Amino acid sequence: MSRLLSFLRAPRLALTVIGFLAVWTGVGAWAPWMQPQGPAAPPWAVGIGLDHPFTSWPFLLAVALLFSSTLACTWGKRARIVAIRRGEFPPSAVRLPSRDGDARAFLAAEGFRGQGELLTRFAPALWGGWIFHVGLLVLIAAVLVQHAFYDSGVFDLSEGERANLAAHGTVFGREKGPLARQTLPEVDVALVKFDPFLHQAGYSRDRLSELEVMVPGEPPRMATLDRAAGIRAGDIEIFQAIPSGMAITLEIAGMGMRTLRLETEAPRRAAAEVTDPGGMPVRFVLESEQDIDGAAGTGRLLLWTEGMGGRRALAPGAAFPFGPGQARVVGVGRWGRFTWTRTPGLSGVFAGFIVILAGCTLLAFPAGVARQGREGEGIAAVVFTVRGGPALAAEWERAGPQA
Amino acid sequence: MQSILFWSAVTLYALATVAWFAWAAFGREWGAKAGRALLALGLLPHAGSLALRWIEVGHGPYNTRYEVISADTFIVVAVWLVATMVARGLRGLGVFVAPSAFLLMGWAVSTFELKREVPIIFKSWWLFMHIGFAKLFFAAILLAAACAAAWLVKDRNPKALASLPSPEKLDLYAHQFMLISFLFLGVMIAAGALWAHQSWGRYWGWDPIETSALVTWIVFGIVLHFRVLHRWSGRRMAWLTFVALAFSVVTLFVVAILVPTIHNSYMVGS
Predict the structure, then answer these.
(1) How far apart are CA A370 and CA A21, in angstroms?
(2) What is the spatial distance between Cα B223 and Cα B250, in angstroms, rounded to a whole number?
(3) Chain B within 8 Å of A237 (Cβ-Cβ)?
């Protein structure tokens, strides 16, 4: 056990693990195959897990080692700090040689204060390193918990459309941790209004949605959503995403209203292929007078279908054959994309951050403990400082002649 | 008016550089005093130019390279001046601060660009924390590197830069600035994570700059461990401080300019 502790506490291990994490993180994030539209990862990278660097076994092993090493270092550190605070100086403490001169006055000039034998400088800051390492432990543990329970997904809505996120087919692109709930959130969302190019004063044009959100057990509420911040709905948060496009609302005989989201194929052309109620493929095509993604608006729109019967122009409100029955175009509008996330454990991540920063803040203070030399010790003073010991000793030497 | 104030600041920083050169090269004590006074004086028109720019475009100095570099320079000079009030021994670092400020202002003006609108995701209070601490981080690591450079100069020629403190003190100041920059970088990363969570529902996305900032933070951790665990100091530590500065410059400027990232808007304006 003590051998294991010594291994984990070894500075070389800490440095090796931290160095490895720095290199792995850098390579993992900058590798060409990690870039959007980048090439496929080469076999050697796949072999060592660099095709998924931040969930690969070398990365997770290094994080586990870092956690263990930090835990082992932190474990015994508390007792050492308490001992130093009591005046039990470690071997690394600086011994100021005897000489004519007032060591206490020198120490006071260096910021050490106290009434009794023991003088201190920023004494609470002695805990800085310990608190920092505790924060690191909290952060690593919380990130692991958060990754285990993280859940997210994507959904599209067209203006006027309402959807239940738990309904089949609504959510796609789901990403979740191994311990996340299997069930989708029972939240109803309706897109009341959507403007992909709204100009808010001082900001570039961007998406803005008005959503009606219905959470079981709560009254429905209206929420305005842009890409600056999400909105809470029950235990999830909903965010505005960038993708958007044109949508057609159809009234199909025997099926009611259906929304068809078109993918933009060219600056002035969007299309979607569907299967009609008769099982035949039909392609809906829309062409615009101006760019679809232009803030000036699309201008005049042309809409038609392409299928077994050839090309057929569509007009708003006019019926057209669609499978065995008929359908009519009720409206043409826009669709927007949204993401939702469920992030239990996030408060732990931020608590870890706060503890780390508190430790860092304390570390910035040059804490220390000192006392004057005792009879027979042959020294003027003994000083422990978290840093700057050599500078202090040099100052003492410069301050006057040796005894 | 904004241009007049900006160029006044540049002129004062240039004169400060000349004064500090006179101090360093010819041992003229007046050079140090004049250099510090000129740098302090330069802050006034510099603050004015930043304020007028803020009023004109309606947002803080974080949207174009010109705004970012100019504000970074202001913070570097201001942090050094504050530090010299706390520790008089740091006054001699003006010999590094003045030319850095002058060169940074030159870089800023070479990328002059006016953009009134910012991306909608900038509508967040976390932005101010994130950007403010990024600037403080840059100032702190630059001063750490200045201490390290001064240490190397004094190591080679102990009589050089006579009014700078002892090498031991310079080493301590470098350590101190590095710890402070480690803290500021940590706050910058944490504020950025909170901002990302507010906008996108995720606190980390392995964006190139996020990753670069994390790697820099880890590198700082390694350097600080070498100091604390292995008691490294002096020459080795001075060079490691330059390594830390190099990582910082890459994170703050190089990645944003060269790599497509969500942070492009502040350095390349896209």
Answers:
(1) 38
(2) 17
(3) yes
CA distance B147 to B174: 5
Q: Which residues of A touch B116 (CB under 8 A)?
A: 202
Closest chain A C-alpha to B185 CA, distance in angstroms: 10
Query: What's the CA gap between B256 and B9, in Å, rounded?
Result: 26
* Three-state SS sequence of A339-356: EEEECCCHHHHHHHHHHH
Model ipTM? 0.82
Residues of chain A contacting residue B122, judged by C-beta atoms under 8 Å apart: 203, 228
What are the structure tokens assigned to B122, written together?
């900038």
Burial call A196-219: b when 16+ CB within 10 Å, e when fewer: bbbeeeebbebbbbebebbbeeee
Q: pLDDT by residue (tens digit) across A255-313? A: 888 889 999 989 999 999 988 888 888 899 999 999 888 888 888 999 998 877 788 88
Q: Which of B187, B199, B218 sits opposite A228 (nearest CB)?
A: B199
> In the numeric block, which tokens belong to residue A289?
């007078």
Whole-model pTM? Answer: 0.87
CA atoms within 13 A on the CB side of B23: 25
Q: Which residues pair with A198 in a beta bridge?
A: A206
Only one residue has tokens 């605070």, namely: A85
For residue B117 the two structure tokens come to 């609108």
Amino acid at B263: H
CB atoms within 10 A of CB B256: 22
A22-48 per-position pLDDT tens digit: 898 888 887 888 877 788 888 888 888
Q: How far apart are CA A50 and CA A293, in angstroms?
A: 37
User: Do the beta carbons of residue B267 and residue B253 sit within 8 Å?
Assistant: yes
Q: Which of A210, A214, A239 is nearest to A339 (CA)?
A: A239
